[in-house]
Amino acid sequence: MNKDYYQAGDTAKVSFFWSGSADGFPGSRLGTSTPKALTATFTLADDQKNSCAESFIQTLNVQNQSGVEYVSIPVTGDCQNPAISVKIADIGGKVLAQNSYEIQSKNIPQEKTNAGSNSNLVIVIITLAAVAIMVAVSLYFLKKKKLAGEIK
């Protein structure tokens, strides 16, 4: 993966190496068992198991029987400590291999790490302003009532 943290709207660039079955070459003990088609299905989630992207399916070139594949996955949600899982399956859906890879986020954008503290500060300021307005209104009515009592 090209990053250790993704935000909604990013594109995760993933590279992986795969190889075919050990009997998938001419002259092997069992003969060739080259599948007609293979697909790799990728899922991207954060450390809380929340999905960060739609499942992405890549068709693999079975003629080469191995190779490095590059995929670009559109990220739909913020993804801290991303984990990517890939399943390679044949045309019938039989899973031939699967693996997961997790990355610890170290380069989280500053605005994401301070977002919680900023929202708490806003809540405190709004609460203090509301209390100040209530005290001012109470004092106004109290003073008005006292003046009304002196006039009578």
Mean pLDDT: 81
Largest sheet: 4 strands, antiparallel
The tally of beta strands, per DSSP, is: 8
How many angstroms separate the termini? 81 Å
Number of helices: 2
Q: What is the fold named in CATH at topology level of the largest domain?
A: Immunoglobulin-like
Q: Architecture of the largest domain, CATH level 2?
A: Sandwich
Task: Determine Rg (CA atoms, Å).
Answer: 30 Å
- As a percent range, the share of strand residues is 25-35%
Number of domains: 2
- Give the strand order of the largest sheet, numbering strands 1, 2, ... along the chain: 4-3-7-8
Q: What's the CATH H-level homologous superfamily of the largest domain? A: Immunoglobulins
Net shape: rod-shaped
Fraction of residues in H or I helices? 25-40%
What are the low-pLDDT stretches, counting only 5+ consecutive residues below 50?
none
SSE order: EEEEEEEEHH
- What is the name of the CATH class of the largest domain? Mainly Beta
SSE class: alpha+beta
Could you explain the architecture of this structure?
It contains two helices and eight strands, in the order ββββββββαα. It has 152 residues and is an alpha+beta fold. It has helices at 110-113, 115-151; strands at 5-6, 11-19, 38-45, 56-60, 66-74, 79-80, 83-90, 95-102. The protein is 27% helix and 34% strand. A hairpin with a 4-residue loop joins strand 7 (83-90) and strand 8. The chain has a four-stranded antiparallel sheet with strand order 4-3-7-8, with no helix packed on it. It has a two-stranded antiparallel sheet with strand order 1-6. The protein has a two-stranded antiparallel sheet with strand order 2-5. It has two domains: 5-108, Sandwich (Immunoglobulin-like), CATH 2.60.40; 114-151.
